[in-house]
Amino acid sequence: MKTGGIIPFRLDEELPEEMLSARIEPPVYIDDTTLRDGEQTAGVVFAKEEKIYIAKLLARLGVHQIEAGIPAMGGDEKEAIKAIVDLGLSPSILAWNRAVIDDLRHSLDCGVDAVAISISASDIHIQHKLRRDRAWVLESIKRAVDFAKEHELYVSVNAEDASRADMEFLIQFAKTAKEAGADRLRFCDTVGVLDPFETYIRIKTLIEEVGLDIEMHTHNDFGMAAANAIAGLKAGAKYVNTTVGGLGERAGNAPLEEVIMALQCCEGVHLGVRTSLLRELAEYVFQAAGRPLPAWKPVVGSNLFIYESEGRASGVVRDPVTYEVFPPGEVGLSRRFNVGKYSGPSVVRQKLREHGYHPSEDEVRELVPLLRARAVGLKRSLIDSEVVEEYLSLKERGRT
Amino acid sequence: MKSQIRLVDITLRDGEQAVGVVFTRFEKVQIASLLAGIGVEAVEVGFPALGPEEKECVQAVVEAGIKGRDGRPLEVNAFARARKEDVAACAECDVHGVVISISTSDIHLERKFCKTRQWVLEQLEGAAEEAKKRGLPFVVSAEDASRSDLAFLIEYYRLAERLGARMVRYCDSLGLDDPFTAYRRIKRIGQKVHVPIEVHMHNDFGMATANVLAGIRAGASSVATSIGGLGERTGNSPLEEVVMALKHLYGVDLGLDTTRFREVADYVAQASQRAIPVWKAIIGENIFAHESGIHADGVLKNPKSYEAFSPEEVGLERQIVIGKHSGSKALIHKFRTEFGIDLDPDTAGRLLERVRAMAVQLKRPLFGKELVQLYQSLVGKRR
After folding, report:
1. Fewer CB atoms < 10 Å away: N or C end of chain A?
2. Of 4.10.430.20, 3.40.50.720, 3.40.190.10, 3.40.830.10, which CATH number belongs to B285-379?
3. Closest C-alpha to B225, from A223, A42, A104, A341
């Protein structure tokens, strides 16, 4: 049976083993765009000093390249990019441009060593947004890349809306970029409409047909940004464009911390970055963006290592590896136990021990339903002092 | 394409297990009704073995007699560990079905339970017998399936099949699978096990939704989801993402009323005291907010430029936000449509410079009033 969505597949399909067992071959390079695509998010504005501080943190973490902003916007934006270049950080500093010579001149003013030259690859964008044709797009790529290369810049040609582009034209687009001297092609799933398998097929095809380095730029509109980025790397892409916490247009981009830890924990690829900075970095960026960092955010959320339900807590007190793929300290978090509706003896015992009490098994058995009822009544988890108080009054009652 | 895929929502069970979340009995009934109202046919509502309060909650949902959009009763399930007493507690709540769960990974067996694989099979047998004795249809769930030895996992599922399970559930309890691994494992299970497979994926590395879709492509025919992805740690695959991805990416329509997604999510957000992030995929307030010049211009010419589906489809609205990254075309559009003022290109260009400077200074986009004030001070007209 065939389906009729954007992604062609059959429900009785058999995906090739070659695809399913593909492994990511290091090196993998991270190009973080928190300062460009992240800031482009509706409602988000970073102050110049925030941009500088974020760039420093990204450098300390150890990303390969920082996409610092859009020089053509002028004013404060241009100054911030210049200031970041002047820091002399170890990552390459890249600036974003339309495929327009004037934009590139602004980038040159900032002293960046790399540029992204962006232009749409899909007919829907070319016809409706640009109101041009494919030939004009190819011509623009050539002109812009020529100019950038004359000035010895590292060039990424960004194929905007590549996921909705006609594959044949996308190949032609990438070949044009390569022939003009581009160093890589950024494959943008601008509206986030691919799944990992379709991503894999397209990236694999591009690499085989063109032989240019590929960078993954994925969006999270259907919740698959991280998975699609990983799929692209499996197909042979070498670069991945991320943002801290997934900040970015609409539902955001592939989150830096998810990509780093998925590579490490699910794919066995260690990037050698300082992951212990991830929580601090996320806190800073969300503060600067005026957004709360959800407690349940993958990798860096404050709730990830809090144990409340008995099922998990009973495993973790015996051995954290039962429910932890990596230890909390690895991303700058810590482990905690919370008493709530789903808690049982393991959490209660643990909590009381933390406060220097050593309840008997009978006491624990008696306490659990009391504490659960209290959590249900209050419609929240209990704070430590409430647990201790309940225990002490139980003991009190025992004495009288 | 008409869908053969079943969806069971687990907001009221795994969702409630999220740290700090407690639903009242009333809220559980309300959420179950809302889910039935948008077309969800099956829900998992709680863990009766927890104690009397939880039992009352589960019973309340059953007794509410909630009917789906087609008039058929909402299928209400409860969760049980593979223990007779847990299954009995479910049966006492008069639920329509039970999910029997136990860990199948050696890591859990050795380090959490200090038991053998044989023990797992015996536990399952005991619990399944109890369910059969009480006439309860049951789903057999394997916790930590993604870290389980595949051969043993298949043995476990085959036992479940022999015992009469209506379905087996694959749990990526730690969110460790990637879509390629998930596909491969579920495909293998499907070749050996002849009852339907349900997938339950966690989001620890941001791949829950992708893994659910991978499971479906590999032949799973049932998915467990929660509203907004509410659940343990990073949560589950969100109902709204799975439904919309199936519909728009695969062309598989589960027939849910997507226009009420936001409404249901708002209720769950209130009840769980967890705000929906403005950038939450599918239902976040900002999903259809466009600020940057290129995006706003593209959307004004044709919304399809930057929107995979229209905002009305999920009960949201499109907004053009004017801020640091805005371009003159969006500014001209805003002034014409909202303030009835026609800006000539020169005025728009000069106004844009002031707008950007002010947005940078205020560190936020500008409100309508601020825009009009800037315009008035620029053209020197005051009323």
Report:
1. C
2. 4.10.430.20
3. A223
